[in-house]
Amino acid sequence: MGSSGTRYGSITQFFHWCTAILVLVAFVYGPGGPEQRVYSSAHQIDRPLHETLGLCVLALTVIRLLWRMIDTRPEPFPVSRWMGIVATAIQSMLFLLLLALPLTAIGGAWLEGHPLTLIAGRAVPPIFAPSHDVGAALASVHKWLGDTIMWLAGFHALAALYHHIVLKDDVLITMLPRWIPVRRARSR
What we know:
The chain has helices at residues 10-29, 35-38, 46-70, 81-111, 132-167, and strands at 116-117, 123-124. The protein is built from 5 helices and 2 strands. It is elongated, with a radius of gyration of 19 Å. Strands 1-2 form a two-stranded antiparallel sheet. Its cofactor is heme b.
């Protein structure tokens, strides 16, 4: 369940892949655009799904970060200094975005005077006094962060494939469940 010196454990892998799927689906179902479009009747189905998934991402990320503090991690693979710096920076940015995206969405919606609309007809009313300009600014930041996380996640995935195909190390294998049949690139 926990991670070892050579691979991430099943709990960490679950957090990783579940987060990836939630973010991708939330991105696809994000209504995007100006407030008039986002809160229009045309988005009465996808907005609650998007907002519910966003709250799931936030909760999962908090739990994941707490787990990360107590779980061991695999030994780092020998890479050049610049690769290590870039990998650490991208992982840090991804975690920051996983927290900032839901928080900017919640703040933007509430400050624009809209409740969070969740699936099953639930709504969480605003707890802030409306400030439309600040809410609109947060909504714009949220959209930009959403695009940014997709680019960074894509780069993250390409880097894992680069490690597996070009560098022929097992960076990719460390995050894959054991039941996925992938040939090890080579042993450490």
